[in-house]
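User: Is it possible to get a 3D structure for a protein together with its bound compound? The compound here is flavin mononucleotide. I've pasted both below.
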Amino acid sequence: MDIIQAINERHSVRNYLANRIEADKVELLKKKIEELNAAGNLNFQFKEDAGKTYNKLMNKFMGLGSAPSVIACVGKDDGNLDQRVGYYGEKLVLYAQQLGLNTCWAGTFNRENIGAEVGPGERLAISIAIGYGKDSGKPHRSKDISQVSESEKGRPDWFEKGVQAALLAPTAINQQKFKIKLKADETVEFTDLGGVLSQINLGIVKYHFEAGSGRKVEL
Ligand SMILES: Cc1cc2nc3c(=O)[nH]c(=O)nc-3n(C[C@H](O)[C@H](O)[C@H](O)COP(=O)(O)O)c2cc1C
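Assistant: Yes, that's possible. Here is the predicted structure of the complex:
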């Protein structure tokens, strides 16, 4: 499965089968996490047993309580941690999709029960539930391309593809509060329009744009 197919097929999944992730896939996930931690100055941790990470009333209500495993998204709290968490975390989410797994970013979770190791100068930003879904989720309602993008330089194919991939990105409570602008000098400007966990959302959106457009994005 290539990255575009993974972007198209990924949806948040909140109801999971009890099956644990097989040992060979756990190894692949751990290797990927190691790689992303090194690239992004992060300390993501895979917890094979999610235990009572999702015992909050809201999680039970939404169904997330059934997630067998979880990723604790920890990293050096140096000013742009949330964007790095979003960008590298979404690389991991799409990799999991390619392995046939399902995921859900979750800002609502039990910070004590997740059992993350948070070193000096680090912060636990968010969690990602992971496992085999009872279903594969469904496409979210989406804004239009014109609502989230503008251009001073026409609409080249690469830009259009980047924006389309960005619209498929998960954002907290599906806010899609971002703007992507192609400037006259052909650079791309991303604007965070606020809302819940907006910098994590923006990091996720930047990775989707990068994967869709084939153009490297700065964090
Ligand atoms: C930063 C972030 C935090 C989120 N937190 C939660 C959460 O606490 N609980 C939950 O059920 N879903 C959560 N979600 C999932 C969003 O509701 C979901 O991504 C959005 O509705 C779009 O749907 P999709 O992911 O299926 O495309 C979160 C997503 C993001 C990106």
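DSSP finds seven helices and seven strands in the chain. Residues 145-213 form a domain with the NADH Oxidase fold (CATH 3.40.109.30).
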